[in-house]
Amino acid sequence: MSRHSRLQRQVLSLYRELLRAGRGKPGAEARVRAEFRQHACLPRSDVLRIEYLYRRGKRQLQLLRSGHAVATGAFVRLRAATEEPRCAEAPGTPPKDGDSLKNPPDSMGLPETPPEGR
Questions:
Q1: What is the pLDDT of residues 32-67, one digit of tens each?
Q2: What angle is formed at CA 57 by the lines to CA 51 and CA 59, rounded to 5 degrees?
Q3: Alpha carbon of 26 to those of 9, 32, 70: distances in Å?
Q4: Against a cut of 0.70, is the pTM above it?
Q5: Reduced to 3 DSSP states, what percent helix, strand and coil does the chain have, rounded to the nearest 5?
């Protein structure tokens, strides 16, 4: 088995730190696991994206440790346990199921929700 690269060791360390910081906070551990699983299939060669996600995780760790965070939540629907995990798509990539015409992605790559009453 080959040794992990420096970046891989940093990401694994961040994962453990986030899990420790999330203990006792409702939803935190599940959120951390789901977020890491979502991005687990990124290719090793996508270093810029991995470093971006690492920095984002470090900021979230600071927030969890600050004491102001009581619980964590998500604004996305979590997949059922029976569904197979999919690789995270790049921001701005339209969905493959044809919803791109109904809900085009916004600047963050998330589908826009239609306004109520229209």
A1: 999 999 999 999 999 999 999 999 999 999 988 887
A2: 110
A3: 27, 12, 8
A4: no
A5: 40, 0, 60
